[in-house]
Specification:
elongated, 7 helices, 147 residues, 76% helix, mainly alpha
Length: 147
């Protein structure tokens, strides 16, 4: 069945969507670098936040490292989808911590970042397929496969 869209229109739309996604990925990378670096440097505000969480300062280092690694991954085409997926996990934890644990928490910002990372993960899902196809679920759950 013929398509009503011309090839040039869908092609230019795809190019614009891809460019928009790279802009979003660049902005998210900047936000996560801006957020992750103070965690690793021991900024007083982040140290106090993690003290209030009660999980220990080790978590601050783990989260800061994950944010910086995710930011870098967002800028590498092969890792963009996986990085966005990982940052989604970090933002789920941040949203829940802000909403439930922290006394003066504000879950809106991490929830927005979660949604934006989800958009990137969905748009870049083609980069996730090689990673997911490389996993052999049978081997992970039942030991080595016997042939």
């Amino acid at each position: 069945m013929p398509s009503f869209r011309s090839r040039s229109l869908s092609s230019s739309t795809g190019v614009r969507a891809n460019a928009s996604m790279w802009v979003l990925q660049g902005l998210l990378a900047a936000v996560f670098l801006w957020s992750g670096i103070p965690k690793l440097l021991g900024d007083d505000a982040t140290t106090a936040t993690f003290e209030e969480l009660g999980a220990g300062q080790w978590l601050r280092y783990v989260i800061g490292t994950a944010e910086i690694a995710g930011a870098i991954g967002l800028l590498i085409p092969f890792f963009a989808g996986l990085a966005a997926l990982g940052l989604m996990g970090v933002m789920v934890g941040a949203t829940l911590s802000e909403a439930i644990v922290l006394e003066a928490g504000d879950p809106v910002t991490p929830a927005i970042l979660l949604a934006l990372a989800a958009i990137v993960a969905w748009y870049r899902r083609d980069t996730l397929l090689p990673v997911l196809q490389g996993l052999d679920i049978r081997t992970a759950h039942n030991g080595p496969s016997r042939q």
